[in-house]
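dumping the sequnces here before i forget
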Amino acid sequence: MTRLAGSSKLLRAMNESATLALLLDRGTLTRGDLREITGLSKPTTSEVMRRLTDAGLAVVVGHTSGGPGPSAEIYAANPAAGHAIAISVRETQSPHLCAVLCDLAGTEVARADVTAAADPVPAVAGLVDDLSRQAGLVPGSARLVQLGLPGSYDAAAGVIRHIDVPGWDRPGLVDDLATRLGATVAADNDVNLAAIAERHHGVAGAVESFALMWFSGGLGLAIDLGGTLLRGARGGAGEIGYVPVGLGRGADRTDLTDLAGGPAVLALAAEHGIDAATPEAAVAAGTPPFLDALAERIAYGLAAVAAVLDPPLIVLAGDVGRAGGDALADRVTAALRASTPLDTAIAATGVTEDPVLLGAQVAAQHALREQIITTLRDAAPAA
Amino acid sequence: MTRLAGSSKLLRAMNESATLALLLDRGTLTRGDLREITGLSKPTTSEVMRRLTDAGLAVVVGHTSGGPGPSAEIYAANPAAGHAIAISVRETQSPHLCAVLCDLAGTEVARADVTAAADPVPAVAGLVDDLSRQAGLVPGSARLVQLGLPGSYDAAAGVIRHIDVPGWDRPGLVDDLATRLGATVAADNDVNLAAIAERHHGVAGAVESFALMWFSGGLGLAIDLGGTLLRGARGGAGEIGYVPVGLGRGADRTDLTDLAGGPAVLALAAEHGIDAATPEAAVAAGTPPFLDALAERIAYGLAAVAAVLDPPLIVLAGDVGRAGGDALADRVTAALRASTPLDTAIAATGVTEDPVLLGAQVAAQHALREQIITTLRDAAPAA
DNA sequence: GCAATAGTTAATCAACTTGACTAACGCTCC
DNA sequence: GGAGCGTTAGTCAAGTTGATTAACTATTGC
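..and the predicted 3d for all of it:
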């Protein structure tokens, strides 16, 4: 990291972005509060707020009352200063897109979804226009679009890998979308976004770090280290389906997918006399012996994760994790304690909405904040 | 992170620390170079350099020549502006301490070691005094001491865990050392320090991230993510000895220590007709069939690591890893390719000196730099 | 009417920049 | 081989930007 150097202009830009960041983080503050936190003087605070309100980035949302003296103005970041769009891409029978438009405060302003077999670029563009119309915004006013994908995005190569949705594996797609939409387009793995949702709206709010095991048709793992997601060399971090089980080679080789992937869960359910169409249905209908057996397999995979990462918490999420709930999480905890010296806490997901879309929404909102703050710092507004 | 706000004093402090950081990072620079990189004007650069040289933090080390115009002064950070001490703690028969005193440039100034059964505090203090005397420095002039420990230091609780060296498990020891020495005392796991050595003096210089498997009496793993080490919730990240092998329970339970720990390696060697006193001797004397069998076991453990983290590189280090060299690394690569779809690169360590002490030296030097830079930023020197 | 507080104004101060200037060095031309 | 010229390192002086201090005005509650 290069440390910053510069002249008084840099100083003003820094003070403005520090102030805006405080308003974004803490919600509502008076000038006095800002003075206290930033350590700036009264006239400077006033000048900074004048510029921020002139630029439409901050607004007065009320006045104090009760104490002696004149009432102080209460400021907040202007929620309408920017809008971002979160889109969750899914493959059911045909490509399906769910989208939410939210403002700078993270409030949902519009929601839409579309089932489209066509080229992703016009499909996304149409969805974005639809949302803007619904929200009564000028088309193109959403400066940031966050995609949630069932695959991994390699930003260096500009290509989405391991994705089953037709049309979405085309190299350069994300860049094409960015130019077509005139917006920054971010893309991330659905499991990673579910972890973001878990941190901000689930059970992982208080912990320093955690791992989220995504347990659906396939297996995945998101690793959140102090709020930053670990992606790995080629976006392959968390591919725990490949964790080996036993020393078998060739045809005897077994990995965690063979043990706890969708088909394996259904087979295990059948062994226990449970007839279900999907793994999550099997788990929801599960008898204690079946859940015990499944928990032991999950604990096996998590033991490897815990031995490598030592996270304070592992969250069980995805369709199966949610269906299993506390009953499954408690059994996994017991199985882990019984088989290893690791005492990592295990919990079921606390997110009730669509975790991928929700996570994309949080990610979009945060990226938008960052964008606005750095824009302020880089290009000091003209007098 | 709170963004900085402040007045012109902050600006000066920022410019000084940015300039000093550049000198520390890049070695030697002229005023013109500094001007270009920082974007500051000529008079400001001169003023900053005048202050840095007055404070003894920078020195003129030469003059340019050859081109037209007057010769420009070449500056460098003053190596004698600060000294740090690295100490590696080991348990052989009795506690053994190896120590190096180095200057701000990382150059070794003095070296000493001592075998002491006594209380760690006087032992370390004596060693530190000895080094200062050797180097001709005023006692107490080393402001930073970095310990390398065969255990994990829990800074929050102030206690060193999982350490076998007598006297070193006492709670509050590190704080006691800091007050006794009048210096900042940092402590870290020996495997983590070996990873730091590997990044700066071994084969991991160019990669973004890597994992280092420490393979000696016990098994350990250090995880370097972009230059930052992952420590885990309770300093337990990288305890890969606990990675389970197969689904056995109770007495049948097997983990990676059972498979590839010191006794297991010796047993495997014996099966192959190799009689050796230590695992590293067994590996050094190893026949191809033995190495193949061992590589397969190592690859099993690394498969779990690679599936979770997806590092671009895994380094085999420790006594056994070094003894195995490329022969072992190549066999592990082949075994990993044969048993999983992961194509992580595997290499033998490139560090030839004592990796723990070397890593502690690098860590100490970097912490000292950081200390000097932040001191400069926090307390602007009086005029 | 008084005490306390929000916010503004005016004067001052600190730090950086611009542009001009001095001085040193190497090259070239006579 | 020496004088002159172009180029470049570094300094000086003036001006600009932005923050601070301290005084002042105005508003509110008691």
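The domain at 205-350 of chain A is CATH 3.30.420.40 (Nucleotidyltransferase; domain 5).
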